[in-house]
Amino acid sequence: MFYVVLSYQEEEEEEEGEEKEKKEKEKEKEKKEKEKEKEKKEKEKEKEKEKKEKEKEKEEKEKKEKEKEKEKQKQKKEKEEKEKEKKEKEKEKKKKNGGHRYFGCSGIDCHCPSIVAERNQPPKGRTDQRRNIQGLVEADTGIPAR
């Protein structure tokens, strides 16, 4: 009988040992699952941080581009203003010199570009009107007007 009690105790101890092992395994599994969850959370946090950083970078790039565009517009305005001022100064000079670009130009055999252009223009008046009318008649009918 003593032997039966010992074997019964051994069986109980073995069962308790198995139960302890199962509990330990379950605890290990739970720890692993918790670690995996922590890792997932950390990865998600890192992804969110990266997204925020990318958004910040995009915003900074957009701001820089807007600033560049503003600077370009300012430069264009400045250039236009300078060109207007130059044109106004040239007009004032021409008015003072009677259309002559060069100061002290006598006007006889003048080579100032504006005066030469005026000389080379065809005479104004009826001849221009007749030419225009003839051109229109030719265009409409296809027959020369002469």
UniProtKB/TrEMBL annotation:
<feature type="region of interest" description="Disordered">
    <location>
        <begin position="1"/>
        <end position="146"/>
    </location>
</feature>
<feature type="compositionally biased region" description="Basic and acidic residues">
    <location>
        <begin position="19"/>
        <end position="91"/>
    </location>
</feature>
<protein>
    <submittedName>
        <fullName>Uncharacterized protein</fullName>
    </submittedName>
</protein>
<feature type="compositionally biased region" description="Acidic residues">
    <location>
        <begin position="9"/>
        <end position="18"/>
    </location>
</feature>
